[in-house]
Amino acid sequence: MKKILIVDDSATARSFIKRCLEIVGLRGCDFLEAENGLQALELMNKNLIDLVFTDYFMPQMTGEELLKKIKADPGKSNIKVFIISSAGSVTKEKELLSIGAKAVINKPISPASIAPFIRGIIIE
Amino acid sequence: MWNTNASQQQNSPEIVEPVKDSRALLQQAVNNIEKMAFLPVSEAHLYYSKIKIKTPIKGEMVIFVTESLAKELTNSIYGLTSEDNPLQKERVKDAVSEMLNIIAGQFMRTILPLDQDFTIGLPITEQCEEVSGTSSMIQRFYTVNNNLLPVAIKGKELINFFENNRSR
Q1: In this structure, what DSSP letter does residue B13 have?
Q2: ipTM metric
Q3: Residue A49 falls within a domain, yes or no?
Q4: Which chain A residue has the Cα nearest residue B95?
Q5: Which CATH number does the domain housing residue A12 bear?
Q6: Chain B contact probe: residue of A84, A89, A94 with most B CBs at under 10 A
Q7: Which of A6, A21, A103, B12 could form a disulfide with A117 if both were Cys (CB 3.0 to 4.6 A apart)?
């Protein structure tokens, strides 16, 4: 069973992301939630996480900083990280992809907007 | 910067001298709609949310959502029905914040070139019955037949009189 970590300071956003992922075929996965990057790293130290869906703008640590920390840690660098952001430009998207983000998805997300990024993962 | 004056009316003691209470005066004035159009007027309970636009342009975006609409939207986002457990105020505030976050992000993406980075702050949401935009405007909210009716008082002199009258 895949372990999916959703990181967002908004409980509403976490709930909505989870619903979208379930709708597009990740129902039955083990979902974990974190309110910020620090909490996310703690959860990653205690659990073998397969996928991370993280907001970009969060208090304490941005999604970009979290991504960098994940990719810099050999024990975590294989985790697929998706950035979900309400504030993404094409330039920022390229930058995030270049430092290891699997995809950058603009808010508001929907099952339709998230599905293309998830298709490969469901098959794996 | 917008300031809210949240939920004071509910906690205030019964008005014994209505003529000295400027809120009551305003309410009294708005109540004339009831006499004119035979439609019920009441004070609106709103959620007010603001978010700072930080770069490359400075500004702020604000939304007002009636309590009933905020609850309806929250239920819808969470996939709940109104028969489910009553919504926690914090959950409704969080949902309103997230909505504004998305609106602001989309707005900035729309007005800026595709390759232009931008930063926005974290949304702040609270309940309110009144907002003061600048020192020269106060806005209070009513509902008439379940529709929102904002009433604004503008002008420093009038605002000062209103504020002084209110504090008596």
Answers
A1: P
A2: 0.83
A3: yes
A4: A12
A5: 3.40.50.2300
A6: A89
A7: A103
Enumerate the residues of chain A whose CB falls inside 8 A of the CB of residue B114: 89-90
CB contact under 8 A, A88 and B109: yes
Phi then psi for residue A47, to 5 deg, are -130, 150
Task: Give per-residue pLDDT as tens, A71-108.
Answer: 999 999 999 999 998 777 788 889 999 999 999 998 88
Q: What is the pTM of this model?
A: 0.80
User: Using one digit for the tens of pLDDT, what is the confidence trace for A14-31?
Assistant: 999 999 999 998 888 999
DSSP-derived secondary structure for B40-107: -EEE--EEEEEEEEEESS-EEEEEEEEHHHHHHHHHHHHT--TTSSPPPHHHHHHHHHHHHHHHHHHH
* Residue numbers in B near A11 (CB within 8 A): 91, 94
Question: Hey, which residues does B119 pair with through a beta bridge?
Answer: B55
User: Contact A112/A105 with Cβ under 8 angstroms?
Assistant: no
Summarised one tens digit per residue, pLDDT across range B122-131 is 999 998 877 7
Residue at A120 is within a domain:
no
Structure-block tokens of residue B15:
């008005």
Q: Which domain holds residue A8?
A: 3-115
What does the alpha-carbon distance between residue A113 and residue A117 come to, in Å, rounded to a whole number? 8
